[in-house]
Amino acid sequence: MTTLSGGPAASYATQGTFPHAACILIRVRGSMTRRQEAPFRMTTFADLKLSEPLLRALETEGYTTPTPIQAGAIPHLLEGRDLLGLAQTGTGKTAAFALPILQRLEARRVPAPPKGCRVLVLAPTRELASQIDESFATYARHMRLSHAVVFGGVGQGRQVDAMRRGVDVLVAAPGRLLDLMGQGHIELSKVEVLVLDEADRMLDMGFVRDIRRIVATLPQARQTLLFSATMPPSIAELAGSMLRSPVRVEVAPPSTTVERVRQTMMFVDEADKKAAIEKLVKSPKVARAIVFTLMKHEANKVAEHLTKAGVIAEAIHGNKSQGARERAMAGFRSGAVKVLVATDIAARGIDVDDVSHVFNFDLPNVPESYVHRIGRTARAGREGHAISLCSAEQRAWLRDIEKEIGAPIPVFREHEYHSDAAQNSTMRAPVLGGGGGRGQGRGGSGSRGAQNSNRRPSGRRAA
Ligand code: AMP
Questions:
Q1: Does the pLDDT at position 346 exceed 90?
Q2: Which domains are seen in the chain, by residue range?
Q3: pLDDT computed for residue 342 by the predictor
Q4: Handedness of CA 429, 314, 148, 187 (dihedral sign)
Q5: Cβ distance 75 to 48 under 8 Å?
Q6: Which residues make beta-bridge pairs with 223?
Q7: Is the minimum distance from the CB of 66 to ligand 1 under 6 angstroms?
Q8: For residues 295 and 435, is the Cβ–Cβ distance under 8 A?
Q9: CA–CA distances in Å: residue 436 to residues 153, 304, 311, 368
Q10: How far is the centre of ligand 1, averaged over its atoms, from the C-alpha of 175 (Å)?
Q11: 93 ligand 1 Cβ < 6 A
């Protein structure tokens, strides 16, 4: 194993997760900021030996400096190595894989295989799949490459049409991809590169068998990239079975990527939460905010309450049609919608740079989700503020969250809704039932098991 920058992460390679030949470990500190210095000596995209059409596209996008994961991954991916990337959204990981993939596609031009693709990217949700597809289109704007995206929740006609002649790059949610493969519309025997993005989330959503079924139809000789924000044993196992001599690139763990986020906890009774959130989002400091709820129906109610109170708000969750979700996202991106009210999975992969505030209307019952949620603000080097409302019922979850981030969250008490009962509550954590009661929107397509698994035994259950 070659360690370019050592650290505890080296243990995966030495523990025999990858019993193959040399495994290079690159550990990079800190997440992306626009002003940051890239690690190692390389500081420009040209230094990374990216081709001229890609450099031109990056210039148009205003990217000047590779992020740590880009600097760490791109040279190895250009050489055709497999890669295990430990990074979450916001680190620049999409470009880290899209740029070298595009360069290699362009360097060896062959026609796209009918009904097939040369590059397959699997992603857990339609939002993330769409964003990845858009990123490929953006970076390939000066190349002649074709691309398509397939996911559930919309009619399949256009996706089937798009695939008829084959494409260079296909981005897909696993459920719909398998459906289309089953109907004979997609065939993957010519895939050269496979990317699994947000692999931990795909496993949480119950896609593991689907992924294995898809991968079984791919050629053995291919380049494989796996990205995951966390490395539970299930991911290490999947990576071990699919990657060959991978380079491992790791950006700082989630708790340090959110260092720039100012965090505040407010103790509020359930009955006062709507009034409290209304007051918070009306603050002139709030430019653009995401409000998180646990339940889909609650997301609707909060959005309705805010709309009635004169705040432009939209709810986004798995029960909304694709069109409604896209409209809400477009409005949020353009600034026409000030507040997006979202459930956890619906918000995964939402990539909007100027979110000034994240509000937790409910605390998440899974501690890692807290980190993912607050990471929606303070992106791209900006500052951000995450304010959480904690009721007596959710007090027990706060203890788990503070354990997860390794520090207490500062409490703000001087407000009209402060509740000592909530702050001092010793109530046991509620058990969340299954059957769709949770507010976790479903991802790509198909009903595929757990939406959000608890990663630690705590007596809680998520649907
Ligand atoms: P990702 O982690 O792929 O979701 O990317 C997060 C955000 O960073 C996206 O808005 C990208 O457009 C942006 N981005 C990616 N690479 C860079 C870079 N080198 N410089 C500035 N912004 C970037």
A1: no
A2: 4-252 (3.40.50.300), 257-442 (3.40.50.300)
A3: 94
A4: positive
A5: yes
A6: 193
A7: yes
A8: no
A9: 16, 21, 29, 21
A10: 27
A11: yes
Residue 266, phi then psi, degrees to nearest 5: -125, 130
Distance of CA 81 to the CA centre of its chain: 23
CB of 128 closer than 8 Å to CB of 207 = no
CA of 115 to the centre of ligand 1 (A): 31
Residue of the CA atom closest to atom 14 of ligand 1: 92
461: pLDDT strictly greater than 60? no
Alpha-carbon torsion 106, 110, 113, 119, what sign? negative
pLDDT at position 27, please?
A: 53
- Overall pTM surpassing 0.70 (yes/no): no
Whole-number Å distance, alpha carbon 123 to ligand 1 midpoint, is: 17
Does residue 193 have a pLDDT over 80? yes
CA 195 to the chain's CA centroid: 14
Give residue-wise pLDDT tens across range 114-168.
999 999 999 999 989 999 999 999 999 999 999 999 999 999 999 999 999 999 9
**pLDDT at 270 exceeding the cut of 80:** yes
Answer with the residue of higher pLDDT: 366 or 443. Answer: 366
Residue 258: per-residue pLDDT = 62
Q: Cα-flanking dihedrals φ and ψ of residue 358, to 5°?
A: -115, 130
Sheet architecture: strand order including 313-316 = 261-267, 384-390, 357-360, 289-292, 339-342, 313-316
Radius of gyration of the chain (CA): 22
Say if CB 344 and CB 364 are below 8 A apart: yes
Q: Would you call 68 helix, strand, or coil by DSSP?
A: helix
Compute the distance from residue 199 Cα to the ligand 1 centre, in Å. Answer: 19
- The one-letter amino acid code at 46 reads A
Nearest CA to ligand 1 atom 8: 92
Whose Cα sits closest to atom 13 in ligand 1? 92
Q: How confident is the model at residue 457 (pLDDT cuts 50, 70, 90)?
A: very low
Lowest mean pLDDT of 182-186, 266-270, 440-444, name the range.
Answer: 440-444
What is the 330 CA–ligand 1 centroid distance (Å)? 18
- Of 354 and 181, the structure prediction assigns the larger pLDDT to 181
Question: Helix H segments across 8-64?
Answer: 11-14, 52-61
Residues 6+ apart with CB under 8 A from 174: 122, 124, 202, 207, 210, 211, 214, 444, 448
Decide whether any atom of ligand 1 lies within 6 Å of the 85 Cβ.
no
Contacts of 48 (CB under 8 A, 6+ apart): 42, 66, 70, 71, 74, 75, 78
Question: Does 63 contact ligand 1 (Cβ within 6 A)?
Answer: yes
Dihedral sign for Cα atoms in the order 152, 158, 164, 166: negative
The full length of the chain comes to 463
